Amino acid sequence: TLVLGYQVKALQLLGSGPQLDNCVLCGCNGSHPGFSVRDGGVICRDCIKKLGPEPMDPLICEPDFDIVGILKYFLEHPLKSLETLALADPVEAGIQRLLRQYIGYHLDIRDLKSEGLMIDG
Length: 121
What we know:
Layout: H1 2-13, E1 34-36, E2 41-43, H2 45-51, E3 60-61, H3 67-76, H4 79-82, H5 89-106, H6 113-120
Antiparallel strand pairs: 1-2, 1-3
């Protein structure tokens, strides 16, 4: 969890963090159940509907958890407070998968060797 928080904070500091407040497609600030890696942030229910049911863009996900709330929590709290935060394994895996896709797409980094060092070491 600490590594995920660090990655989110680093992305934000680099100016490449995801848009978490408004839909990246239409700009509305309502409910945002989806996340578009390609477009760089949250997307609203109406825009998801406009995209159609299939074929669904593999870079758009509709997570089973409040990803926006978790990412905002990471950004609003110091890393020290994330040391004791424990996310459920499926939630942590989902955020990790999303961040890897996001970093891979926006920073063109497909394999984060430093992440392996932090996790394994």
